[in-house]
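Q: Sequence in, structure out?
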Amino acid sequence: MNEHFKSGFVSFVGRTNVGKSTLLNCLMKEKVAITANKPQTTRTAIKAILNSETYQIIITDTPGIHKPKTKLSRTMVDTAFSASQEVDVVVFLIEATSQEIGPGDKRILEKLKEGQKKCILAINKMDLVQKETLLNLMKIYSQEYNFQAVVPISATTGKGTDELLEEIVQLLPNGPKYYSEEEYTDQTTRQMIEETIREKALRFLNDEVPHGVYVEVEKFKTGKTMKNEKIFNIDSVIYCNKESHKGIIIGKGGAMLKRISTASRHDIEKMLGEKVNLKIWVKVREGWQEKDSIINQYKFEK
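A: Exactly. Output:
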């Protein structure tokens, strides 16, 4: 083992919509986790492997902490806390626009105190506030927990993220490479396709509809085009909670479903590096957020 090589496990925790997935993509310099301007976008723990000549960091992006209302959302919150129990470093994300420690952040602080993990406080969206506001927020949180470092960042622009990465590396132990350099996520191709489609639904649909959907890829096969070019044939289903939601997802004359399909296909082709023939159906599966057979796939696995 190279005594100068650092490696270890890091988890991102925070309330919903604080920018954990955006930060992960920023550090990875490629899209690993879906993002949307909607709370509860991330539903399960997603691992990303960040490699360099001097370190390997296994980062877990977790669901946002929120007040659960369904069995699915309770599982999401449990996953977020479970994924932070056996890591070397926790990165706790908060928003710079916060003026006090809210209920969700208090709950996270309580869990941090229980585990006594090495923790970095990352204050995201720093570009939205004045310096005095940042300093006040640093003071408030530093009185509550002995953070190893406090780093203001903007996950959207990348400002401060190099400093955050340096702080993470400093806290990691010397260790081996746990994954090969070619690996960058633990997600399967099917899972990434499903998440890509769900991301577009989150982005384009309003109100409660997007949070009542999940996606399954039913067929994923290679084929040939008329010009003998390689193509991926993908059949998938967007499941929703209500019949009324099905109509909204399809849209007038199929316009919304076409919009979701076109945007999804574009991203999937970019991801796979090949042409894609994507078909999406919409089906109703009432009460799926309470069904263990579906929810179990969102549970955290060590």
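The chain has two domains: 6-171, 189-298.
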